[in-house]
Specification:
- One of its GO terms (molecular function) is transmembrane transporter activity.
- One of its GO terms (cellular component) is membrane.
- It is found in: Membrane.
- This protein has 17 helices and no strands.
- It is an all-alpha fold.
- The protein has a single domain, classed as Up-down Bundle (Growth Hormone, Chain: A), CATH 1.20.1250.
- The radius of gyration is 21 Å and the shape is globular.
- The chain starts with a helix and ends in a 7-residue tail after the last helix.
């Protein structure tokens, strides 16, 4: 074995050890995070009768979550960079768990608006904060696979979220005089509170603080990351921060933000909030069957995402892998309106859409850290996610409005698919392999 092969084997062993330490916990935290989003889509099927919630009111409540998220997103990411992941992630999870539990006590549209806004404020910074946190531990050549392990929680939530949510709503309805949807919020709110308490003890802010790594392993991580980061760090490994103005003046950041808003968040809103209603429109009436069917596209989506991310890291290529995912999502959404009265076809096209969504999401989040200067990453990742929340404000309101006015999903899904396609084109333009961008975007090959 050559010295280079030995060095690569050592690096792989160290980063594998880090992944086993961090990723299962972060994976579980994202499952808890996305269960909130699955919960509201299933709870809506019951509380719209109990509380008189129309599709327009529901869409607005989903959008208000994003408004609260948008308000606190950049400050939350800056706090994480300043005070560390342990404190920040613990605070975020404990607060969102408490607010989720409080949603069991909403009485009508206005209390729903209030709790959804507070939930967005509480969750702000979690997802981009973890993406930023992972850049402290893993170099570019590993990032698509590592990101896919984190993003996989969204798919797992899609698999277990539907059946578990409908089971809770069916079997706990009437206990202590509460509705099934009330129990759903209580059960979903407890795990993040416990995870937040654990985060402070389990996570380390930086590799230099990781006492569970040997001094040799810490040196390997810092050396590998130092080679990847280059002059953006000083010799002590301290990040040289850019100003907020520098970050916001970066044209690439705004193009990435626009693409994320149009591609990932528009598709994500359909996947995370409207799939139960789409299945019901296709003729599925039984609540438990609906929950089980909603899980199937995510099972296939996990395999598709892992294969795509493995291919992306091996080939050191991002843009066309992202485009392939976005294209699948567009195709699925364009075909869905013509299959809404056929449950089997609806499942096929939902599966295409979910596969494309998961692939595009995982590949996308491996791109910004490669294109943005190190000192701008905290602000940049938050700005990108903020743009996504703007999409989350507008998309559910638009879908709810078009569905209420026109009596179906046809116009809504067609409109969203056009936006997704435009978002793919924006990213392809942003990451075009010109001589100035090629050195940033195409990554070195990493053997597994």
């Amino acid at each position: 074995m050559s010295a280079d092969d030995l060095s690569l084997a050592t690096q792989n062993a160290v980063f594998r050890r880090i992944a086993w330490r961090l990723m299962p916990f972060l994976f579980a935290c994202l499952v808890f995070n996305w269960l909130d989003r699955v919960a509201i889509s299933f709870a809506h099927l019951q509380f719209r009768q109990d509380l008189g919630i129309t599709d327009t009111v529901f869409g607005l409540s989903v959008g208000l979550f994003s408004a609260g998220y948008l308000l606190c997103e950049i400050p939350s990411n800056l706090v994480l960079e300043r005070f560390g992941a342990r404190r920040s992630l613990a605070r975020i999870m404990i607060l969102w768990g408490i607010v989720t539990i409080s949603m069991a006590f909403v009485q009508g549209p206005y209390s729903l608006y209030l709790t959804r806004t507070l939930l967005g404020m509480a969750e702000a910074g979690f997802f981009p904060g973890v993406i930023l946190y992972l850049t402290y531990w893993f170099p570019d050549a590993y990032r698509a696979r590592i990101t896919s392990r984190f993003i996989m929680a969204i798919a797992v939530c899609g698999i277990v979220g539907g059946p578990v949510s409908t089971w809770i709503m069916t079997h706990l309805a009437g206990v202590w005089g509460w509705h099934g949807w009330q129990w759903l919020f209580v059960v979903d709110g407890l795990p993040p509170v416990l995870a937040g308490l654990l985060a402070y003890r389990w996570l380390s802010d930086r590799p230099a603080d990781a006492h569970w790594l040997s001094p040799e392993d810490r040196a390997t991580v810092q050396q590998t990351l130092g080679q990847a980061l280059g002059p953006a760090q000083d010799q002590r490994g301290v990040v040289l921060k850019s100003t907020l103005r520098d970050a916001l003046a970066n044209r690439t950041l705004w193009l990435l933000s626009l693409s994320y808003c149009m591609t990932i968040m528009c598709t994500g809103n359909v996947v995370n909030f409207w799939v139960p209603s789409i299945l019901r429109a296709s003729g599925v009436r039984d609540l438990q069957t609906l929950g089980n069917l909603s899980a199937l596209p995510h099972v296939i989506g996990i395999g598709a995402m892992l294969l795509a991310c493995r291919s992306s890291d091996r080939k050191g290529e991002r843009r066309w892998h992202f485009a392939a995912g976005g294209g699948l999502a567009v195709l699925g959404m364009l075909l869905l309106p013509w299959s809404l009265h056929h449950a089997a076809l609806t499942m096929v096209f939902l599966t295409l859409m979910v596969c494309g969504y998961l692939i595009a999401t995982a590949i996308f989040w491996s791109i910004p850290a490669t294109l943005l200067p190190v000192g701008e990453r905290a602000v940049g990742l938050a700005v990108i996610n903020c743009a996504g929340q703007i999409g989350s404000i507008l998309t559910p309101v638009m879908i709810g409005f078009l569905k209420s006015r026109l009596g179906g999903f046809e116009a809504a899904l067609t409109t969203v698919s056009v936006l997704v396609a435009l978002g793919v084109l924006v990213l392809l333009r942003c990451t075009a392999p010109s001589s100035a961008r090629r050195s940033f975007f195409f990554l070195p090959d990493a053997k597994s």
